[in-house]
Input
Amino acid sequence: MFKKFQWLLLAVLLAGGFAVRLYKIDNPVADWHSWRQADTSAVTRNYFKYGISLFYPRYDDLSDVSGKGLLNPRGYRFVEFPVFNLVHYFLAKVFPFKPLEFWGRMAAILSSLVSAVILFLLVRRKTKSLTGLLAAFFYLFLPYNIYFTRVILPDPLMVTFFLAALNFFDLWLIKQKSFLVILTGISGALAVLVKPVAVFFFLPMLWQVYQKYGWSFFKQKMLWILGFAIVFPFLAWRLWSYLHPEGVPASAWLLNGDHIRFKGAFFRWIFGERIGKLILGAWGVLLLGMGLIFGSGYFAAWMLAALTYLSVFATGNVRHDYYQIPIIPAISVLLALGVAYLVRKSRDFRETWTKRILALVCTGFMLAFSWYDIKGDYQVNHWEIVAAGKEVDKITPKDAIVVAPYDGDTAFLYQTNRAGFAYIPFPVKDLIDRMHVTYYVSVNYDEQTNAIMKKYTVIEQNPRFVIVKLIEPKKPAK
Output
């Protein structure tokens, strides 16, 4: 039955997956993880301002992000190679009837739909059509993944590329067609360029080549060429980035900066709070466990890849819940394997329907409880930064440099559509003289803001925000 209608069912899943991702898609970039979304979107916005320059991506933050005391007057952002920003730019350029932020989210949504199709094809090839459809279902409808594949982040695109690489590689091992290994190299290289953590998720490829060649896979020249093709573009990009250290954010702390790896807090946060509660809603743990038991060695390699990634980037995964985006395909596959086992017909009628009801109940509660925890991520808690940003954009020159203090969060700065600072790194007079800052905007009437208001010229003030031009008012003549 499922094999006969598999494409129709997949189309229904994709339509549903697309629809649920439209929820609050017009939100300003001020919801959960808005700082990271703002930084990504700012690179694309600056393509419209200054033209496309792939090798000199720029965003709005001029502060020291390197941790080396280097200010960033040009606003360089040498993180991921801007593949996602190119897709974002293209969509916004071709379809200008929606805001830039809409198309940033749409780029992530379209990536997630492609990922679901690839997941279906790959899992179906290794198991059955039903399991492939279930894998696509979980990838599309896990509440965690719904939110984090409609954000302005490069991670969903990275997932698409590494899944494409796994799929093409699997086909190449079967058919031995040269164009398939070329496609593997291209998609793999793009995955690593988008985010280098993609390399962890190529572990299933190693499992496959070991199964095919044994330890003699070291002698396979094509595999060495493929590996070089995947990592060389990233290495070249990283070497280029280091020519501009002021634009390379400090990142070593993501590995184990607070020494949390394998401590009790690490296991609690990763497996208790994130995977167990946020992603699986507690009730999905049973399904995941059954998937681990009844899955093949190939899919066990997927989970091993995910666990290796979680362990290496221990601090990053504990501090940021969006860091778990790349492990969702592995989780979706294991959930699918678990459910496929439970719904399988047994000899005993009661056993068959007990397992099926258990699968249904676990899936329903998993989605419900996960949604309960994730729904707050869509909420915009500080609309005042949006209002203040619009006013700054309206009344200040386009080349103005502003300070928009928001505890270092660049979401407020992004709303102003200006380059500048998300905090005051040194005295205001130095900011004016050294960095040519001309405006200060705040949504808090704190001690710092009141001192600036007393010394400089207030040009807009209301209960929600204040905008100050950093010029001392002329004193009346005596």
Remarks:
- The mean pLDDT is 94.
- Residues 426 and 450 are 17 Å apart (CA to CA).
- The chain is about 60% helix and 5% strand.
